[in-house]
Design goal:
By secondary structure, the chain is α+β, with helices and mostly antiparallel strands. The protein has one helix spanning 2-28, and strands spanning 37-41, 45-47, 50-59, 67-73, 79-82, 89-97, 103-111, 114-122, 128-137. It has 2 domains: 1-34; 37-137, no CATH class. Strands 1, 2, 3, 4 and 5 form a 5-stranded antiparallel beta sheet that branches. The chain has a 4-stranded antiparallel beta sheet with strand order 6-7-8-9, with no helix packed on it. Strand 4 (67-73) and strand 5 (79-82) form a beta hairpin.
Length: 142
């Protein structure tokens, strides 16, 4: 009986040493044992007198689709996530520039398992006018 207890104690010590060394190694190479969401800010562009950039957020731990945000930066450096009046989780975002003041943003959103394609365009007053283009069922890409 005593030998079984010694065996479990030895296993517990080896497991603890392994976990500590794995954590130290992950810290040294700049990572984590339990990674969180990854956020990437794409290059900025000027549009309608403001500075904008797209931000994509993904999670390496799950097969869920990434989420896109459109971020406007004002003159003081404060950032505001703009939804442009478009509902759902943004799954794709493309900017089509015609000039620094004109262009359109193509947005694919997910609402209740259905993909909706939207186009956001500035109107004559400089505000955003949005309209839905098409609907399509989600087809996972792997």
């Amino acid at each position: 009986m005593y030998q079984v207890a010694l065996g479990f104690r030895s296993l517990a010590i080896k497991t603890a040493v392994f976990v500590v060394l794995a954590g130290v190694f992950a810290w040294i190479v700049g990572g984590s044992i339990f990674p969180g969401s990854q956020v990437v800010n794409l290059p900025q562009f000027d549009w309608n007198g403001s500075t904008w950039h797209a931000r994509v957020t993904g999670n390496g731990r799950s097969p869920a689709l990434v989420r896109w945000d459109l971020v406007r930066t004002d003159s003081t450096g404060d950032e505001f996530v703009e939804d442009l009046g478009i509902p759902g989780k943004w799954r794709q975002l493309d900017w089509h520039a015609q000039s620094s003041a004109r262009g359109s943003i193509e947005i694919t959103t997910e609402v209740d398992g259905v993909l909706e394609n939207w186009t956001a365009v500035p109107d004559a007053g400089g505000s955003i006018a949005s309209r839905r283009k098409t609907d399509a069922p989600i087809v996972p890409t792997r």
